[in-house]
Automatic annotation (TrEMBL):
Boundaries of every Fibronectin type-III domain copy: 224-325, 329-431, 523-622, 723-823, 845-937, 1054-1149, 1152-1254
Family annotation (SUPFAM superfamilies): Fibronectin type III, Immunoglobulin
Keyword annotations: Disulfide bond, Glycoprotein, Hydrolase, Immunoglobulin domain, Membrane, Protein phosphatase, Receptor, Repeat, Signal, Transmembrane, Transmembrane helix
PANTHER family per record: FIBRONECTIN TYPE-III DOMAIN-CONTAINING PROTEIN, TENASCIN
Family listed: Belongs to the protein-tyrosine phosphatase family. Receptor class 2A subfamily.
EC category: hydrolase
Protein name stated in the entry: protein-tyrosine-phosphatase
UniProt-listed Gene3D superfamilies: Immunoglobulins
Membrane topology per record: Single-pass membrane protein
GO molecular function, one term: protein tyrosine phosphatase activity
Amino acid sequence: MSLSSAILVVCSLLTAALSQTPRINTEISQVVAVQGDNAVLPCTIQGLDGYKVLWSKERKLVMFDRNRIVGDTRFSMDRHHVTDWSLRISDVKKEDSGRYSCQVNTNPVTGNDVTLIVLDKNAVPLVPKEVLALQGSEVQIRCKLPSPNDIATWSYQSDYRRDSSRQNIANNNKFSFRQSNLADDPVNTLVIKDVRSSDEGRYFCRARGGDEAESVLKVVGSPPPPSIVARAVSPNEIAVSWERPSGQGIDVTGYTLFVVDGDTGKEEVLEIAPTREQGKEETYTLRDLTTDTVYTIQLAARLQLSQSAMLGERSPKVTVRTPRFVPSPPLNVQIKRLTDDAAEVTWDPSDQSVSGKVLGYNVSYTPVTSGKQQPKPKTVRVEEAHSNRWKARITGLTPKTRYSVSVTATTKKTSGQASKPIIYLHKTFPPDLSLNGRALSENSVLLTLNHVGSGALTNAKMFYTEASEPSWKRLDMSPNSSYTVVGGLDPGKSYFFKFHAKLGGKVKQSVTHVTTPPYDLKAPRDVEVDATASNSINVKWTYPQGGGAAPLPLGYIVYVEEHIDGVASANRRRNQLVVFNRTSVEVKELLPGMRYNIMVAAFNGFGQGPTTDSLIFRIAESDVKQDSVNQPIPPSFTHPLPRSINVTKGEPVRITCVADGYPVPDVMWFDNGEPIGVPAQGSNQLYIANIRSSTMLTCRASSQYGNIEASTRVNLLQDSQAPPGGPSLKLNIEDVKSTTLTLAWSINGVSPLATTRLHMDIKDKDGRTLLSQSLPGQTRSFNLHTLQPGTDYIAELRMFERNREGREEMLARDRIVMKTLAADTDRTTQPPQAPVQEEVDRYRARLPLTLTSVTPTTASLEWTIEGINPAYVQALEFRVKARSNLTLLTQSMEPAMRTMELQSLTPGSLYYVQLRAFDALGEVLGQSVMQVNTPREPGADDEDGREGSPRGLRLTIAAKGVESKAALLDWRLSGASTDDLKGFLLIIKDPQNRTLLRQEMAAESRTLSLSRLTPRTRYIAELYALDSRGATIAQAATLLTTADESTDSADDAAPLRVYTEEVATDSVKVAWDVPSKLQPEVSVITAELRNVANFTMLAHQMSPLTRSLTVRNLEAGERYSVRVEVKGHQGQLLKSGYLEFDSQATPGMPGRPQLLRARAVNSSAAQLDWRDTPSPSPLPGSSAITGYSVTFATVDSANQLTSTMYQIPIYGSAKFVVIPNLRPGERYMFQVAATGVTASGPRSAPMFVDLPRQILCSLSCPFAKRERDRQKGR
């Protein structure tokens, strides 16, 4: 018997993973062609490796691989090399213009866009009719071409007679060409250098396939150079004047001034704009020159005539010398002592009657001695002033010595007159010292020591005492340190610290007073709440400062709790936000109209302080105002009413008016001034069942603090009449069945570029909303599923557009009443609920499946992609299941596939077919499910069938004891007499549908052992019951998958194999294999999921037949571990397995940092160091790290959380942080995560730090003994 009655087999294996990503050449992005020519759009691809190439025009598929998709035969592949995938268009037309895309079906899609521009044929080039040029200049004649790929030829005629011969122009030293291939301005420019009178004549530009254009060149003589006059007006300024040159048609665009420094020989070129009218004198002043220097000056005019420009001839040279300048002495020179060996000199610049350039000052100082030989003076150079006075620091001074100090101004060439010498006696400071202190935390103080004067510091001692119990105790300190940190103090206490030492042989001491902050934190105050949007608020507060005794909070906790009357606080929804280093926070994702309790509390390393009094707040969607129980708010509308509503006669009107304020206002409706219904608090919905005429509806909101009104005009339209002067919608029913219905609509009066949004509402006949869904503005159809047969429904479609204020306004609306068919009139009978049926309406794409043909053993299906651009689909998955929900086929396909043929089906059987579409990130875009019923073979249902064929005979087969290389098949017959049964035929096939075993067995056989199988392989077992003539009287099939070889080990200590099948950004499917020998002993299977910090996220207990578990709500890119345990009937552990995995990272997510070190700095602070790791899913321009966040909390000895998780943001590239104000003696857990441009990365593996109870000081620990005594209970 043929294989036509066999069960569906696996069609093909999944496509193997490709070794590399193809690379597309993106150098050419634009091609220009003349109408009627052939155009080739280049696309060079390297490393294709089995991927497919697609060409599309503006999202419409043109070519797939080497196959043409469109019906136009002018499109073909132009391949001259294995990497060449260019698109060839013959006889291009104007409508072929547009953007074409060459794409490779990688994930994500790789592609390049090429724009085709088609120009008209036989266009005439454009040149200027006449061109005037200055003799000796360079002239350019522009020829605008019809298309960028045109070739321009130039010719020249030396006189104006038509019969004169022409000469072609070639590229040489005289003539050159410049080509510009811009699509909107293709130009070929003829450049003529050093134009002379002999170059006058007619120049012709001819484009390929077009007429020529003529331009006449005329040469004009240039004017003579200007005559200049130069004179020195100050020691550093020279004035230059000249007459503006003139000429017929010649324009002077500016001047170039050449100035040569006679000392250095360096020439400086200055560009000068014209400032006077033609024929008038021009002037220019040279500034910042050097005094007593000779300058040589020349001038040339920049000339412009028509298409030529040139720099005219230089003027004759003019030589000018600047006057000599000697600066006057500085004024008001003063000296003051700074240190034992330094002093500061200050002075004012001298007043100059003649301006000159002073570059700086020299400060000279020398000791005054009585001997004949004077010491060499020292000089300090100063070139920058401080404020309005100049100052200099002189060092190396000897105490009790007189110095002569003078100041001299300097220029570039000379020095000025020195100031009158000042005799300065340098004295030293008297020896003295000072001790200062400030609180670092609740139990530590920083002491700083400063001392002045000469002499060594000896016999240094430090003492302290409590202010309430004066008793000085000595502290140890380093003699070379200027600061000391003292720890172990009591919070909220006042202390005195005393420093005693000998300085310069004299006894000195200094006392300071410090108060440590109290342990108890205070409640924040001045809490303010402002609405920033329709669903977010900004909370601000201040913290009371109490001087030295003020607490030092590490951060704040903001509590946001729903305020519901009559509901206890413990049952209300509460959210908390932790804030560091600031006193404000933005709270998002709030519900408009909901009241919230806002409370704030401070915290530090010792715990949390008291919370503020509850502030009740409510925001509206549009009008953001504070609603406090202590502040009245006038009424305001939260939703703007539509300006007009267009309805047809008899159509109902439903409109809601919502108002906000405190107290809550009363809302009332009016129809042309007459009240409708009764008032309601806060909101009032108006429903008019039958509109008979146009009217004006008004909503009024009233409270004791004011009244407001808003009106809506109701326009009564005739059937199918569009709103006057505006867009229109028209709903139609395209297809209707018993449980499904397809709606389509048309939109008029709206620009295709308009940003619109559609909203579909499906209601029952009583007006209850069953479905409310927002749709893209380009959608033109909508499919409804799972409807009730023979039921009335109402569909209402509305179109919105955002106005300039950002609010949505309704442009048009239409509604239609529809009814599904009765169940017995539907052409295709659907079961009440298929085993694989899933809700598909939540996806954006629609994949309608169509059964084109079906036979007892084959079925053909086709589908389309609707609702989204097909280019977004990166992969398709086709799945076939049997009635028993056994998956028979799972196949991945190219996104361009639209048909599928199923073979080797079982006659008279029911199959469920599922089709899913995926995007580049692996997210499901849409899916479709349908059932396929194969008909029975002819004669199968005939009551007078073949003699001897039993009726109602049922054959079942199952695989038992499946191991890595062996399995046991067991089958049963039931339902009728087996007298005609003569034997069985067993066929074993591999996944490629190849027959591996064909064995006949006796009628009494009920089992068969299989051996020499391949581990981890799926096999298909087909069993046929045969009669005496060899005909099939019953058949059955089953799938079996062999286990891994590791499960056959006799070692009971071998771990359970645990692996992941599907890993996504927020979910994972974990599977495991239980050895066949253990299956009878298994009573329960448990799975425990932990995160990177080893905290239990999930603990699940399953039946002994469960082999997989899907976990959801995971964090993207995070590391998790799962432990699976198999237990027996007595609760004993049979086997266990462990697996670590990372959830899929989102594009652009930074990598997980690696903590290098976490250590205790002292008893209340810890330091962290880390380094970066590469992004697991890089995205160009979006994987850069902008900062980090450190998360920490206290844990117990088992590393379980014992406090709230706190988070500290770090901005910038620093990879270390010191976290202060921690609790001594506690164990802390730390984690670090990187923050990127588009996403935050996963947290690092945790590190744990045990803070010591012993006081850690930077230099000394004077309270160690007292701390040890306190720990021992003394």
